[in-house]
Amino acid sequence: MANNNLAQYQEQLDEKVSRLNTLLGEFSAPALSVFPSSPEHYRMRAEFRVWHEGDDLFHIMFNQQTKEKYRVETFPPASEGINRAMVELLDLIRPNEILRRKLFQIDYLSALSGEMVISLLYHRQLDSDWENHALRLKESLSQFFPAVSIIGRARKQKVIIGNDFVIERLPVNGREFVFKHIENSFTQPNAKVNCSMIEWALDCVKPLSGDLLEMYCGAGNFSIPLAIHFDNVIGTEIAKPSVNAAQYNIEHNNLDNVKIVRLAAEEFTQAMRGERTFSRLEGIELSDYNFTTVLVDPPRAGLDIDSLKMIQDYDNIVYISCNPETLADNLKVLCTTHNVVKTALFDQFPFTHHIEAGVLLSRK
Ligand SMILES: C[S@@+](CC[C@H](N)C(=O)[O-])C[C@H]1O[C@@H](n2cnc3c(N)ncnc32)[C@H](O)[C@@H]1O
């Protein structure tokens, strides 16, 4: 990494710190803890369009200003595994008519564990001939990547050669947690910064006890490591593949105090208020829980007003946000009942303007 890139990274991070400090200023927030990213090889996922030119074929990206396409041989933000795969994969596909015909996109999902899924997207249906060639492709790639899977996608078609997930192994405070990350589902893109986020959340909840409620829990990224500090954890999430992955993750981390339920945040709020019952909550008596703490990690839109009011019932709120504007809007409501006691900036998305923030609130 050239020195001027490092300087550019630091400058952009400083700008994010100053922007978040300004946004949080009106909530009497304490000083931010800042968790920088490595400035290279931080993304565990990357997607590229594919360009065909005579016998050649290569990854392309688009210049955001001019919209012009440009050729991409390697992509420094992506993990080292993805960078190596980009080269080896195209060397194998370029001379292979069956694998290259109408290929228009390649998606890579890698893991710190070394596992990788490569999805090849086509503008044509995939037949048994394609499958045989994809199988040989997987075998050839496995000399570089022992745990690689290939997925072929076309209209209404998904052919899996191996798995449609990677098994990630995240080191958190010296302990390793196992996570199934499913292709095409939400996972935190920057694995190392994600570990810092989990460690920060663990630090927030360390002095607490009772039960934890997590909303927008994905595959249990926070619920699973945080479970050691609570008697019971309930996580809720809307996406079925993530809920299924979470069940796997509970089992493979040997936890017996975590339950994940497939419910939208809005539905869970209705259930908590006794306004609606859900068969998906069968066997779970919400009134038996002693929720002291809630962790929310919503999408960019933030929390809906009913869920926001519902989480004010808890003494401690850990709010992880990928959009500081909606975070600030939500804090206007939460700070009528709670104080901000810890804040953090996690640089999940280096070299972009995106900010990932953490806020711990406790009841006034
Ligand atoms: C920012 S991600 C966080 C996931 C998880 N906490 C993690 O760290 O991997 C937001 C999650 O909210 C889920 N989601 C989106 N809208 C939702 C809703 N209305 N109710 C519940 N979950 C929702 C998405 O499927 C996604 O998994």
Short description:
With 364 residues, this protein is of the alpha/beta class. 31% of the residues lie in helices and 31% in strands.
CATH overall fold name of the largest domain: Rossmann fold
What is the helical fraction, as a range of percent? 25-40%
Low-pLDDT parts are none
CATH architecture of the largest domain: 3-Layer(aba) Sandwich
Order of helices and strands: HEEEEHHEEHEEEEHEHEHEHEHEHEE
Name of the CATH homologous superfamily of the largest domain: Vaccinia Virus protein VP39
Counting DSSP H or I runs of 4 or more residues, the number of helices is 10
Gyration radius over CA: 22 Å
- The total count of strands amounts to 17
Function: Dual-specificity methyltransferase that catalyzes the formation of 5-methyluridine at position 54 (m5U54) in all tRNAs, and that of position 341 (m5U341) in tmRNA (transfer-mRNA).
Keywords: Methyltransferase, S-adenosyl-L-methionine, Transferase, tRNA processing
EC number: 2.1.1.35
GO molecular function: rRNA binding; tRNA (uracil(54)-C5)-methyltransferase activity, S-adenosyl methionine-dependent; tRNA binding
Written description of the protein model:
The chain has ten helices and 17 strands. The chain is of the alpha/beta class and 364 residues long. The chain folds into two domains: 3-40 and 190-363, Vaccinia Virus protein VP39 (Rossmann fold), CATH 3.40.50; 45-166, OB fold (Dihydrolipoamide Acetyltransferase, E2P). A hairpin with a 2-residue loop joins strand 9 and strand 10 (175-182). The longest helix has 23 residues, at 3-25. It is globular, with a radius of gyration of 22 Å. It binds S-adenosylmethionine (SAM). Dual-specificity methyltransferase that catalyzes the formation of 5-methyluridine at position 54 (m5U54) in all tRNAs, and that of position 341 (m5U341) in tmRNA (transfer-mRNA). It comes from Alteromonas hispanica.
